[in-house]
Amino acid sequence: MQAFFDSVADFLGPFLPFVEAALVLIGAWLLTKLLSWVIRRSADQIVQGVKKKRGVDDTQMLALKSPLASVRTVQRTRTIGQVLTVILKATIWIVATLWAIGIINANFLASLTVLSAAVGAGLGFGAQKIVGDVLNGLLMVVEDQIGVGDDVDMEHASGVVESVGVRVTQIRDVYGQLWFVRNGEIQRVGNNSQGWNRAIIDLAIPFDADRAKVQQTILEAAKELTEDPDWMLKLLEEPTIWGLQTLSAEAVIVRLVVKTTPGDRWGVERELRARIQDALKREEIDLPAMNTIVFDGPNGIQPRRATGIDDKQDQQRRTDAGEAPTA
Hints:
InterPro entries: LSM_dom_sf, MS_channel_C, MscS_beta-dom_sf, MscS_channel_2nd, MscS_channel_C_sf, YbiO_bact. This is Mechanosensitive ion channel protein MscS. It is a multi-pass membrane protein. It is found in: Cell membrane. The protein is α+β, with helices and mostly antiparallel strands. It has three domains: about 1-125, no CATH class; about 145-195, SH3 type barrels, CATH 2.30.30; about 195-320, Alpha-Beta Plaits (2-Layer Sandwich). Helices cover about 50% and strands about 15% of the residues. The chain contains nine helices and eight strands. It has a five-stranded antiparallel beta sheet with strand order 4-3-2-1-5. The chain has a three-stranded antiparallel beta sheet with strand order 6-8-7. A hairpin with a 5-residue loop joins β3 and β4. α2 packs antiparallel against α4 (about 70-105) and α7 crosses α8. The protein starts with a helix and ends in a 7-residue tail after the last helix.
């Protein structure tokens, strides 16, 4: 056998190092394919196991069956699988490339140590942001801050996470625009896909209206959602009224809240508004005009007068009283 290999080496002659380098690169390619397949298969088995345990075939249905646990397992598994694949591919190809160059030029690895000392400082300074991106991305995945499919607010961009890489996270916003956010630039993450959300409706009702009647009307309209097959699975508890949020001469602000499954609060809020409007019409309850009540507080609950006749009257009152007019 040794004689066979010696004859092949003699036949290839000076091309032998290049053939060996090519074999190393081919082996690296095969290894990346194998490890990627193993990671993907392992992630799929975990996902399928969770779905089978919950008796569903689709991830969206899984969210309805188990909104607080299983979905996070699926999302985190897929995210970690993506990150591990990228890291393994990068590591294998770097090692294989250096190995192949070392075969072609035996003195390369020895000179690489001297060369790295010369350019190490410059590369270290230039690559510190890249290193920060990678470390921050790994920590976000390990700490389960975000996952593929999560609805997040990262200050720089808000939307659904489509990919979590070792350096960049991709987010698709509500307009369909794809944002590429460097992991090192992410200072905070607001995740709407973990645990639960809360739908909040702040309703302005006339000051002289029967508040108890209005509250009962909107509460009954909200509770209709809990009996609707299309919405009941998205609600985690009965709607409740927290009471008055703000009191003014024009109106009082009543707050209605309900706990929802992750990512469903906006849809629930829109449906609640539609049903509340229909209920108020049936009871012939009129609401204040929007040019009179403006929500401008930190939570959208502070009423004030808008520009109009009332503002002119207020300015005249201040002038007559010797007060400084408002802007």
